[in-house]
């Protein structure tokens, strides 16, 4: 297996595990590409062409996963730099090269609620 194949598998695994929708991915990449800018919910809503409520849910979900950091009032969000930086950079490059493949992969996943339920069950089962 060559390095590019391994890299693609890591990118795909990250997307499948951490990204619920295409707007989630696009929000993450907007914050990544505009580091260290902090975004308000309204700025993200305008950038993604979604309502403020949807943008807030996206940003809060990415924050719960440790991908973003939230600061202050009003809510300000920024990309949370760390050990995943190289992977997020690879995700950004892959999305630019393979927009349709990655979008289809995200759309083909189970609904977020179903995945959250499954993850909660897995967490409970693992703790026994």
UniProtKB/TrEMBL annotation:
<dbReference type="InterPro" id="IPR036388">
    <property type="entry name" value="WH-like_DNA-bd_sf"/>
</dbReference>
<protein>
    <recommendedName>
        <fullName>MarR family transcriptional regulator</fullName>
    </recommendedName>
</protein>
<dbReference type="InterPro" id="IPR036390">
    <property type="entry name" value="WH_DNA-bd_sf"/>
</dbReference>
């Amino acid at each position: 297996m060559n390095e590019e194949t391994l890299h693609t598998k890591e990118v795909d695994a990250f997307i499948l595990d951490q990204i619920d929708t295409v707007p989630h991915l696009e929000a993450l990449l907007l914050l990544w590409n505009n580091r260290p800018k902090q975004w308000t919910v309204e700025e993200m809503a305008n950038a993604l062409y979604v309502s403020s409520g949807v943008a807030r849910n996206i940003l809060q979900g990415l924050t719960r996963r440790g991908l973003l950091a939230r600061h202050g009032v009003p809510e300000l969000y920024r990309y949370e730099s760390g050990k995943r930086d190289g992977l997020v950079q690879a995700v950004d490059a892959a999305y630019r090269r393979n927009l349709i493949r990655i979008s289809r992969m995200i759309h083909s996943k189970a609904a977020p609620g179903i995945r959250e339920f499954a993850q909660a069950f897995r967490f409970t089962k693992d703790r026994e």
